[in-house]
Structures are given as C-alpha cells and as structure tokens.
Sequence to fold (1152 residues):
Amino acid sequence: MIFTRSASTAPVRQRHFGVVEPGCAERPWRARPSLAFMAVLALILATAAKAQNPELPDQGPMQQTSETPGRASGNYNTQQNIEFGYRDSMIHGNLNNYDMFNDYGSGWRLFDYDLDMHSTNHQGLLFDDLSFNNFGYGGDPLSVSRLRVDKNKGYDFRASYRRDDYLFNYSLLANPLNPTSFAPPTAIANSPQASQYVRHMQDYDLLLLPESRLRFRLGYSRVSTKAPGSTGYEPTVAAVGSNTEGITNEYRLGLDYRGLPRTTFSFDELLNYTRVNTSVADRNFPFQLATGTPVDLGIVFQGTTPCAAPVTNPATTPPTVKANCNGILSYSLLGAPRAKFPVEKFSFQSDYFKNLAMSGSAAYSNSSNVMTDLSELFNGWVSRTVTRESTTAGPTQAKRVVADANWAGEYQITTKLSLRDEFYYHNWRIPSSWATAETNLFAAKAAAGQAGLTLPISPATPANFAALCPAPFTGASCPQHNANSGPDVLNEAVSQFLGQDLRNNLVELKYNFTNHLSAYIGYFYQARTIDDFSATFDTGEVYLPGGATGTAANDFLAARADCAIPSGGLLPSGCTLNPATGVITEIGPETANKTARNYYHIRENAAEFGLSARVSDKLRINADLMAGYNDNSFTRISPRQLQSYKVHATYEPKPWANITAAVDIQENRDNVYTVNNIERGKTYSLSAALSPRGDFTVDFGYNYMDVYTQTEICFPDSSPLFTQPCPVANASPLGTLSFYASRDNYAYADVMWKPQKRVTAMAGYLGSLVRGSTTFLNPLTPTGTLDFDYFTPYASVTFDIYKGASYRTAWNFYGYNDRGIANPAGLVPLPSQNFNGNNITFVLRYAF
Amino acid sequence: MNSRKAPALAILGAFFCLSISPVGAQQNAAAQGSTTPGYAGAEACKTCHAGEYESWAKSRHWATSNNTRGGPAKQGCEACHGPGADHAANPADTSKLFLFTKASPKEINAQCLGCHASGTQQLHVNNSLHSRNDISCTSCHSAHHSETREFLLVKTQPALCYTCHQQQRPQFSMPFRHRVNEGLVQCSDCHNPHGSERQHQLRTSVTQDQVCYNCHADKRGPFVYEHEPLRTEGCTICHTPHGSPNIHLLKMSNVNLLCLSCHTTSFANAPGAPSFHNQAAQYQACTLCHTQIHGSNTSFVFFK
Fold:
C-alpha cells in the first residue's frame, strides 16, 4: 500500500493555468508517442470486449493478478484498468529543492493503465498472455511502461520503456562562500551546475522456443541521456550552457542448450555501442566590461578570485566588472567519443553428477572508446599564465580489455553436510592515449587603458615569429608571457594505463542440523594486483620569447615551464634554443613522465559464519557474521579490516500478522596512523504488517541508521579553526581527524480501512529526521543536508461508484525543513532550503 | 509486399503455426487424466483443489501440460508435487507427494530448479546469499497465491524485498535516492535475487563492468584519464547507491571532505590538495571545477 505510485504521490506547486511562477519552467504536457501508442493499443484490444460486472478495481502495480473478472473476448479474458485525473499542486518555499526531491507538478495525468489478456484455452493465435502496464504519463518526472507477451512453446517477449526527468539544482553545493563583506554581497539562488537530466531507457527481450532443448534469446536496449554539461577551464571559471547527449545501443544474442540431463549450456554475444555528443558553449554572461563587452567571470569566489573586488559599477545592467579579472569572452568544447563493447560469454549450469551442482561462466571483451574530433576554443583572460586565447585538439583513444570467469560448485557430502566452493577471476586493463595539439595565444603589449580581458592578442606564431617579433622581442606585437605561461605550441603523446587482476575463492561448509536449523562456516581469500603508469612525451613544445620580465638569463622568457632554466644556468635536456629566432623547442619526456608501472598488491582473508533457524513455524532467525583483513589498500578509504554483523528475525504470531526485526552493522577500518580511517554503519529496524480483517490493514515500522566516518586529512587552510600540523612531514601544513556522522530516525505507518463496502480510506505517514555533524573546513559553510526533517504524510478516500468505476481523492503533503545552520555568521544570507506544500489529486478509475 | 520481407514473414508465420498445437493435442494427458501408473493428471487434482488448479491454469506453469517429452512426471500439478494417484485414491496418503510446506529450503530449490535451472538468470542459485540463508524459491514466489503474474511473486517489488531488507527502506525515502519506491527502478534491476558472482548479488553490466553503467552509461568510459578508485574499488567508494541525505548520493555531506579523504598528502596514489587550494577561502566543492570526476579524455585533473 505504501508504494502506490499513482495519484497519491502527487506533489504540489502553486500554479494556475497558463501562469508560471518565477524561476520555474512550465512543464508542457508531453505528447509522448508511447502514450498515443498505448491509447491505440488499448482501443484495438478492447473493441471486442463486452461489459460485465467487475469486482473491486485492481489497485496493484504491474502484472498484478486482478480481482476484476474481466470481459470475455473470443477465447481471451481481458482485464483493463485505467486511472486518469488531475493533480493540483501548491508548493511553497524552495522550489529547486522540491523539484530535485519530487518534481510532481499540476496538470492532467494518465496515472495508470493496465491491460491483461489471458487465453482461456491457451490457444491464442499470436499470444496466450499479454500484460501491459503504464504509469506516470502526462507530465510526471518519470514514466514507465512494461509489456509482456507470451505464447506457450513459441516465445516470451518483454519490453519496457522508462523515462526519468531529473532536475538538479542544489544551490548550497556551489554557493560561493560570500562573506557579507564581499562585493557584490549576493547569494546564489541557483547552482552553477544546475541541470536537467532526461534519460530514456528501452529494453526488449525475446525468448524463442522457451520449452525446447535449444532456446534462442534476442535482446535490444537503448539508453539515451541528455544532460547539460559544465566544464572547468582553469581553476577559476566554469562554462555553462551546454549539452551532452549520450546514446547507448545494446544488442544481445544468446542461446541455451539443454542437451544433457539437468545441464544447460549458454552462449551470449553482446554488442554495446555508445556515442556521446558533447557540445559545450558558454552562453551565460552575467557581467560586462566597461566597453560593454559581455563577460563571464565563472564562479565568483571571495578573496582574489576572479580578482579582488571585481565589480566596479553594480548599477549597470549587467554589472560592470574590471578587465583584469579572470574571465571568459567566449568558450566552446566539442567532442564526440564513440565506444563499442563487444562481449562473448559462455556459461553453464549442471547437476548432472550425483550430489554435485555446478555453475560457471567465462567472458571476454575488447572494447574501445575513440574521439577524433575534439575541439576546444577559449577566448578570455587567465591572469596566472597571462593567456588570452587557447585551442586544444587531438585524437583520443582508450581501450578496455576484460577477461572474466567464475566457477561454483556444491557437493553434498552427506544428506546434512555440504561443501561449497566458489572461484572468481576478473582481469581488466585500460590502455589509453591522447595526441595532444594545443596552442596558446598571449596578450600583446597593452595600450593605454588596456588590461586583462581588453588586452590585444599577439598574432605571433612559430611561423611568423621571426618577422613579427625580432630580438630583443620588445615589439608591440610580441607576446607578453610571464614565468607561469605555458608553451605557445604544445604537442604531446599521452599514454596512460590502469589495470587490475582479481582472483578470489570462497570455500564454505554448511550443515543442516534439521530442516529447521542450519549453519555455515566459510573462508574467503582474495588477491588483487593493480598496476598503472602515466607517460607523457613532448613531441614538440614551442616556447616563444617575449614578456616584460624577459632577460638574457631566461632567454627573454622563452626558457619557462618545462624549459625553465634551473639554478646552474643550462636549459633542461630536450630543450633547444634557436639563437637566430630566440625560440626554444622541446622534444622529450615530460617531467611527470613515468613509463615504469606501479604495482599494488592487496591480499584479503576473511572468515564467515552464518546461522539460519526456524525456531517454530512462526519464528525465523537468520544471522551472518564476517570478519576480514586486507594487507594493503589502494586508497586511503579502502578498508584493511572489515566486519559485518547481520541478524534478521521474522515472527508471525497469527496468519494475519507479520513482525520483522533486523540489526545490520558494518565496519571498515584502515588503521595506518597517517590514515586512521573508520567507516561504520549501523541500522536497527522493526516493522509490523497486520491484516486482521479484509477491510482493515495496518503497516508500521521504525528504522534507526547511524553512519560514522573518520579519516586523517591534510590540507591548506588559513582559518583559525585548524592548528595541528599534518602528521606527515613536509606535507600540507595542517591536518585534522575529519569526521562525518549522520543519524536518521525513520518511521512510517499506513492504515487501510473500508468503513463500507464501497468506501476505502487510506492514510499514511513517512518521516525522516536526520541529524548529523561533520568537520567544517570553512567556517562559512552552511550545514546543508546534515540536519533536516522530511515528512510526507498522505491520505485518500476511494468511492466505488458503479460497475468498475471508482473515484478517488488523494492528499499528499511534502515537508522539508532544514534544521541546521542555514546562515553561518558572516555569510551573505542564503535563500531558505525549505519547502512545504500540499497536493490534491482527483482520480477517476475504471476497471473492466 | 517487399520480396525481401516475404521469406522472413513466412518463417515467422511458420514459427507461430508450429507453436500452436491442435486442440486435441492441447487437451493433453494432464487435462484428461493420466493413464501412467502412479499419476492422476491435473483434472483429478482439480476435484479437490479447485482454487489451486485455477491459479495454475492461469499461470505460465500451465505450459507443463505441453511437456510430452518429460511425460506425466513433468506435467501439470504432478510436475511439482510428484505422483498423485495414491493421494487421489486416499486423500490422507501424501507419502508420494512433494509438499512445499514440509520440505526443506534445499529440497524446494532442487524441485524448482528441475525445470528452472536453464538460462543465465538462475546460474548462481545454489551458491547465492539467499540460498546460504535458507531462503527458498517459495520465500518470494508462489505458484498458487502470487500477487504478480510475472514471475509469480508473493508481493511486488520493493515490498517483497523489504520484508527482509528493512534496512534499505529508509534509504529509498531519502531526498537523494534511486526511484525505487516510485517504480522507476526495481531492486532486481541492480541485484539478481537468484545470486551472482559479485558481492551483494549485484548484476554486472553487459560490458562485464559495474551494473551502474547500464543506466549511467556516460560514466562507463573507458577514458584516457581514469579516476582510478572508480575502476578498482567501484562506485560505492564515493556513493551510497540506495539513497542518501547527501547530494548525488554521496557518502558525506561535504564534497571536499570526501575528496580530501584520499587526496591528502601522505599517500602516493592520489595527489594531495595543492597549496593554493585554501580550504578556508573558497572551493565550496571540489567538483565545481573538477567537473568530469568520473573520468576525462582531455584533462588529467578532470576539468573537462
């Protein structure tokens, strides 16, 4: 009852026909092709149906065995159920958060449509059974359709379509920590990374000859995702206003052969093609220069980023900013990687041999992801490197080679004792490369009044440099580098590698003391080897001289970056100076070039124990314990010690009463003194489902979750909060034992009552009280989702009108309230994160 | 009609014709009553067990009636419950019957796998976590009292899974969650309840990688610059997959704390935060700038 996904879950937004609230995008009624298809299909299949007196309408989700007897149509029994109506929403508060959490708006909806056709004599012409279930059409953030058609001996076909429309706009994530002293002292109401992800997922599977010795499986899946992208260019700016579209097509072909008794062999050929089209363009220019040129300063931080006190005139529209700020005048990033993943997989399952049941599989895949059309164009100002323009291109390629195998067997030693063994092998490697081609253009000499974003761009290139900018490289057109400037031309061959070889084995003894009591003990061993390397070879870097701080000692700033002259006075190896032009070229390995592989070996040993007891026909208890140890870890938060404790109990004192309780505790540790990592999760659960009468049911439960994480971290931090040094010498100056703790009290209750035969009343409540604490690296950080209350009570009344027709009114409340520190002292006041609201849904249902 | 389509349609038509048995053959031994000693046939069972017969007749298990190759032992009610002639003659005699209410979980599983041990979905049943804890097929499926027609489940998802896995229920009610309660995602989309070779009975993607990539294909890569823990440790190194109070289902509320857990100078694998990343001055979230944190083809610091 809790998981009704139709009208009772309607959200609320204050909206009137044709009027949209500020900041909220109107949601057009979506005329989906599948909706039209559904309507046509329903009409076609229902034309031959004849009216009969239905029972109570089917309230369940997909594929539910309905209580409605349905209608006879030829030799088919057809049952249909349609729910449509209107949802009126009234939401107050932070609509961005509401959209993220729920996003149910006002409007007409097709809440549910179900169609079941069953051949009464199993002699259907094309099919014997058909089930078609749909919900969420008309404007809800998610829509689902599922179809199953089967014909005895012939085929079994399943299809599903799912649409997920997810709005992300959490302003606190990216809210620059603007203190009240910052100019302009404005808080950000929308996240710079706000995005609307729309994902369409289709799956089709056809099983031919399901009952024959040789079965064929065909499948196709398609996932298309549209999502805005955001890109960081240099650490001070982020481009927005972009689209990334990804489409995955997956083809599956398989067969199952049952030639031997109790044995099945299977083979699968799988092809996955993924194409991603990335199109990033900065279309967000909230500021302007004094010249009127639009400019994007990216994410504006306090302090000196993008520059100190960037706004010079807040009264203009848009506000006018300094020219010497880091900023974007134009930016675009295009690229279309194409990936293909062919997979071959063989598997088997057999208990052909007496007392021995086995299964196993082996798979291989050699995939690639290639991008040949990368193109990045930047025009703006990066003060650290005094760059005015930059282009980046070059083909990329990454491969993923996977070999995967497993074998499992269970041998029945005696009627009570069995031995299980499970072996798993998984090896993958990702070699990749990128032939980088980058050019950087720097400012020419400034004229009066020019700075930063208004500086002219030097037209100097290696081809024209000698003529354009002769020694001593002080001409007006000469590029004005500084010591941090990168090369003017960069060509690199980047080679990366990451791979892992994993093997594990679990051996387990299980003893059945009785049919009601069993226990198992097991030993798990795992060996992992991870290896990686990162190699970068400069196939041609060009450093042009020129700049205010250029001297003969630094070859007039041509000797910079990789070719910077260390104390000692000689150019690094690979750097060659052309005395005639003053240009330095470099060919050779990058400083960070590492062609030798790094290896990481990790061995895990773990013991397991479990108990399963049916104490009586009414009481059942399961317990599982695990303790393990790794001799190494690949990351600081990968555990070296693992412990897991689970106890679950189910008690049915009466046939109509079910009570369950569970304790789940998981703890991982890495006790190396410079890490001191602990990750602990505890959950305590209690629930009851009571159905003493057919007209009255009650469900209720309570969960308590306790999560705690700690890790020793080191970082630069200028606040007075931290004074302890990093425990590692010569590392980041400060260290602290960071922690995150969260405690969630979750409760729910549902009541269904039929005071009269034709009336059904439902009421329920779900609520989470989350309280937490964590280390704050910045005193201006709001607590965000650390502390909140989230309540969603609901109620509905359904009236059975006549012969399968019913009417329902439902009420839902959504209440999210931040209980933490929303506005730390000194921070520009932020918009409230809270939202509260009601929705009322009016639903007509007809079952026939 | 397009001449190239004609052969394909003819094959398809022939296929359907072959799958439709004549009426006489359809009314097989199970329906008419078995003449094999020891077996009574489904019609005999219907006399006393009309409700169970009706539910069986409407389900896919009716297809056992077509199993002429297996004979009466693989047809009708007796395909699961064993020879019923003695019980039909003497209702008190159940000695030759297989009673699911009396059998052990292992026996129940073996009985069901006699037919259902084919294909890849039930490949790991015998060594699954469920099997290890004496969860039998009838814990989730019911041939006669199912709530769903597909898979004959005793309850729909996720209510069925919540009967034992209550600890996941509050997670799916969190602000940031996979939409399981809403019906967009099912537990069985990510987990194989019959077992798998992966931890927590997780499925693998078609590309033999983490199941997350079935939907989150844009994170699959492979990329030139990989965020290595994502590949070696899995998505759960940073995310709580069911639901979380934290954005993007992260394990912590503060993105920087999560990143610094690894990117702290003291560990050779992950570079520490550089000196100009003053945590007190700015950088509300590392991912503001390091946007392509799951991997990038063009930036070793995952800017783009």
Q: What stands out?
A: The first strand of chain A starts at residue 71 and ends at 73.
